[in-house]
Specification:
The structure holds 2 protein chains of 2 kinds. Chain A is an alpha+beta fold. Chain A is built from 12 helices and 32 strands. Chain B is α/β, with parallel strands linked by helices. Helix content of chain B is 43%, strand content 22%. Chain B is built from 15 helices and 15 strands. The chains are: A alpha+beta, B alpha/beta.
């Protein structure tokens, strides 16, 4: 395929605006899959993605399309996630493209997250094709949405495609615009090889697989390749494209997108953002790659069964291979034993990783409440970064603490402005700006402590705006705050994994709520269990789990032992899901209780 | 070899509100047909188990005494003909005080029954009505006296505590009445709400008033203190007996002895395998008459499962797990398998261990399930 007949593009859209459905229609229309092979939303291949209706991982697919000029074109779609936590994934996908479809719901309009991604695409000099989707909805207002796109983003929408992916309207127009508007890749197949690794995955037979965009040169099986950052050399055995299933190809040349596999046994050999070149004829200079990504939210992950510690490590390494944003390092908790401190881009990211570990790697895990990174200035002049409340130094050694604030952008219908301001205010937010996007949609900007965002800000926002609010946030700065460590004592002993850092003003209330919540979670045991919340040496709340009075089954009906046994097995199974903290059996969900209080 | 036999009679005049065991009212005709099927199964099992000697027999239900005298006589005769009985055999029948007459009791004595267990539950009429019993407290007392007069020298009573609206005072009164009857054996069970029962339904509707956990504990403490004080040894978690009157049949369940269950829903344990008969009476009868099998093996027993059951069942008795018996059966030491668990539970004061084995402490009896569950091995 000549580079002039290649188009590489991605799709930018807010959750639920129809990105996956459009992708499916494009696949169907170009015949990459027959209708029979199509399962709804082909690209969201992770079980979790389908269940939640979201895209977590970037996926790619090659489409063959005959353009209006009669030429065959190779269109490479690089799918992107739409959630605020996965901005990093988006930036990686965009770097491998020359253009993007901007999909906006004709009834909903532009959302906060879409905005952030469009700006990112514009920074990357991508050609953007606006697509107004769901135009056959009764509440569709395509003209209004077009104007919104022009006003907010400044894009010309006179050629915007009016589409309904569900009904198959506008799919051909989208394909034609991709061919006509998006520039062909600029690379040169004759130059020394340079290919960007934008993603990777692990296959138990083939080892590590790199997803690449070839910029210059050409790759053929049998070539010896070199990773420019790590210096690792290897022989390529498999080369191919995603159609959408992986299909082997004789070569990948400048402009093309696909995968390579070879003697890459170690997941660490394939680093996303690295440049692949030829060992025999190396390129002089690597591609710019990606900026490093910094996790914003941390939590502890501990195996319920300590024998799973190594399996957890192994699983985290494998997940990290295609999720560079995931960070982890070993940590020890008095209460929970050996585990890992993990860094995530946000709460959804954390949730998704935890669930993948449990499902795909069959691990039973305990997750501690998430924490942000605090800057703790000590009296000796030293500044330390604390991402685990348990590690906060004694108050006597602390001069002051700073916490991260984010710039939160919320877009809502104007009826809900009051609700958004109330919640933001309550979450210690500082009002910055408010803009009318059109007659009834408003963009509100607040500076809010990240700590508050990760509690329940987004949930509260969604529920009090009937789901209309969309949120995007980025780190703004660190500010001094009056923060204290809230400790929880079970049966008189502080449980490090239950400690959290809170604002002084709400320590008392949080303490009471948390103690009450834990009382509901910790089951009755043979002895009474006092639950106390403390700041320093001061007890600020107390609850008691009453002792179980007795626990013994009396009757055995006519020698039916199996029934007795089943009851005991159930009891034992329940116990397995708990962690012994001192003499107290604590269920997993207790460690996340702080998030569940309202 | 010695074995025990359990015979199930799945008929009741009325279902008690706490009961979820397979039983139904059943017409006279149905009872007659069932007896026929049962006798057929007895005969068949008798010939396949020739060489075994019956040391204990237990006819339970349901309400066995609901059957007409001639049907009960048929069953006893069939059992006599089918099996070799030990001369010392303990032969028990369960009886509802509302279903016995002097004639019936005489017939049972003559048929070889030497132990009778009355389901009394309480002597308080108000409570009896609340749990769906068909007899009164006065009838219960009279039935026990009648059994004594008919020559029964081994009489047992079932009592319950933790009943809806029951007070400690009411429980004490029932226990005192039972003691005054000078019976040999008392079983006493805490009420458990089972799914699908009338009481569970009332609970869901929110109209059931149960004593508080604390009140139930006080009742438990009273029973486990009072009965031994009055000469009834607590030989199993829920069972108390005068010296020499512990139920050998029930002990068999706990002490790993083989037993054969006959009749619908009866369970068997034979040669380290567990079987359950079809539980619906109609289905059971149809299978017997058409010559099909009625017993189905439950989960297959691995060595681990056998060990677990050996332990948690033995722990229900006052003698507990005997290290010798364990070693004989499994050809390995109790301590090599359970040493760590036993010492952990001993530290928690739930178990008491010495070179002979281990047994529940008073605290352990109260929290028996915690101990039993700990004896389940990890897969």
């Amino acid at each position: 395929m000549q580079t002039k007949n290649i188009r590489n593009f991605s799709i930018i859209a807010h959750i639920d605006h129809g990105k996956s459905t459009i992708a499916d229609r494009l696949i169907e229309y170009t015949g990459a899959l027959s209708a029979r092979e199509m399962e709804a939303q082909v690209l969201d291949s992770m079980e979790l993605e389908r269940e939640r209706g979201i895209t977590i991982k970037a996926q790619t697919v090659r489409l063959n399309y005959k353009g209006k000029d009669g030429d065959m074109y190779e269109l490479n779609l690089i799918d992107t996630p739409g959630h605020v936590d996965f901005t990093y994934e988006v930036s990686r996908s965009l770097a491998a493209c020359e253009g993007a479809l901007l999909v906006v719901d004709a009834a909903q309009g532009v959302e906060a997250q879409t905005l952030a991604n469009v700006y990112m695409a514009l920074e990357n000099d991508l050609e953007i094709i606006p697509v107004i989707n769901k135009i056959d909805l009764p509440s569709a207002e395509p003209e209004l949405v077009k104007r919104e796109i022009e006003d907010i983003i400044g894009l010309d929408t006179s050629d915007a495609v009016l589409a309904s992916a569900k009904s198959g309207i506008g799919i051909e127009a989208i394909l034609d615009q991709i061919v006509e508007k998006i520039p062909a890749p600029a690379g040169d197949p004759e130059k020394p090889l340079r290919a960007l690794i934008f993603d990777s995955n692990f296959d138990s037979y083939k080892g590590a697989i790199a997803h690449i965009r070839v910029i210059d040169g050409c790759i053929k099986p049998g070539m010896t390749l070199k990773m420019m950052a790590t210096g690792k050399t290897f022989e390529v055995t498999d080369i191919g494209s995603f159609c959408p299933a992986p299909v082997n190809m004789p070569e990948l040349s400048a402009g093309q997108v696909g995968f390579i596999a070879g003697s890459l046994k170690n997941v660490k050999d394939v680093r996303v953002g690295d440049t692949v070149t030829s060992a025999a004829r190396p390129a002089a200079e690597a591609l710019p790659g990606y900026r490093g990504v910094n996790p914003m939210v941390y939590c502890g992950l501990y195996p319920v069964d300590s024998a799973d510690y190594d399996n957890l490590k192994d699983a985290l390494e494998k997940l990290q291979l295609n999720d560079a944003a995931l960070m982890f390092e070993p940590e020890t908790s008095v209460a929970l034993g050996f585990g890992y401190r993990c860094g995530f881009l946000g709460l959804l990211h954390m949730d998704v990783i935890q669930e993948r570990l449990e499902r795909e790697y069959n691990l039973k895990l305990i997750t501690t409440a998430p924490s942000v990174i605090y800057h703790v200035y000590k009296t000796n002049g030293e500044m330390i970064r604390i991402d685990n409340p348990a590690n906060l130094p004694p108050t006597t050694e602390i001069e002051h603490i700073e916490e991260p604030y984010v710039k939160a952008t919320v877009i809502v219908p104007n009826d809900y402005v009051g609700a958004v301001m109330e919640i933001s205010q309550e979450k210690r937010g500082e009002f910055k700006n408010m803009d009318y996007l059109d007659v009834n949609r408003v963009m509100i900007i607040y500076h809010i402590p990240l700590n508050e965002i990760i509690y329940d800000y987004f949930d509260r926002l969604k529920s009090s705006t009937r789901g209309y609010a969309s949120l995007d946030y980025e780190l703004a700065d660190y500010r001094p705050s009056k923060l204290v460590k809230l400790d929880i004592l079970l049966n008189g002993e502080a449980v490090d994994a239950l400690s959290n850092i809170v604002h002084t003003d709400r320590a008392a209330m949080r303490g009471r709520q948390l103690a009450a919540k834990l009382k509901g979670i910790i089951p009755q045991q043979m002895f009474e269990i006092p639950i106390q919340a403390a700041v320093g040496n001061k007890i600020i709340a107390r609850e008691t789990v009453r002792a179980m009075r007795k626990d013994v089954l009396a009757k055995c009906y006519g020698g039916d032992i199996s029934r007795k046994r089943k009851l005991l097995e159930k009891q034992k199974e329940g116990k397995k899901r708990m962690k012994s903290v001192g003499s107290v059996e604590v269920p997993q969900e207790a460690f996340m209780a702080i998030l569940k209080i309202d | 070899m010695e074995i025990s036999v359990y015979v199930h009679i799945p008929f009741c005049r009325q279902k008690c509100y706490y009961c979820d065991f397979p039983s139904a009212t059943g017409s006279r005709e149905m009872q007659k047909e069932y007896t026929k099927a049962l006798c057929q199964e007895i005969a068949a099992q008798g010939s396949s188990l020739s060489g075994e000697t019956i040391t204990t027999l237990y006819i339970g239900g349901g309400t066995p005494t609901l059957l007409a005298d001639e049907l009960l006589a048929d069953i006893l005769l069939a059992l006599r003909q089918a099996f070799d009985w030990s001369e010392m055999a303990e032969v028990t029948i369960e009886a509802n005080p509302g279903t016995v007459t002097r004639e019936k009791l005489d017939m049972l004595r003559q048929g070889g029954i030497n132990r009778i267990s009355f389901g009394i539950q309480s002597f308080d009429d108000e409570l009896l009505k609340r749990i769906g019993r068909i007899h009164s407290g006065v009838e219960a007392k009279a039935a026990v006296k009648l059994a004594r007069a008919a020559g029964f020298e081994n009489i047992s009573l079932d009592l319950m505590y933790g009943l809806p609206g029951q007070s400690l005072k009411q429980l004490k009164a029932s226990v005192e009445t039972a003691l005054a009857l000078e019976i040999e054996h008392i079983s006493i069970y805490g009420l458990q709400l089972e799914e699908g029962t009338m009481l569970a339904q009332l609970q869901q509707q929110g109209t059931l008033e149960l004593p508080t956990e604390e009140a139930v504990e006080t009742m438990y403490d009273y029973i486990t203190g009072e009965l031994p004080r009055c000469g009834y040894e607590r030989y199993e978690i829920s069972n108390f007996a005068r010296r020499g009157f512990a139920s050998r049949h029930n002990l068999g369940y706990w002490l790993d002895r083989p037993y054969i269950g006959l009749g619908a829903a009866a369970h068997s344990y034979y040669q380290n395998r567990r079987f359950a008969n079809l539980s619906a009476a109609a289905e059971y009868m149809a299978s017997v008459f058409s010559g099909k099998t009625v017993a189905f093996e439950e989960e297959s027993m691995t060595r681990e499962i056998l060990m677990e059951e050996f332990c948690f069942l033995a722990l229900r008795t006052s003698q507990g797990i005997l290290a010798d018996a364990f070693a004989r059966k499994f050809a390995c030491s109790l301590w090599s398998v359970y040493g760590e668990i036993i010492s952990q539970l001993t530290n928690q004061k739930l178990l008491q261990a010495d070179e002979n084995g281990c047994r529940l402490t008073g605290l352990g009896m109260k929290y028996g399930n915690q101990v039993f569950a700990a004896f389940l091995l990890d897969d």
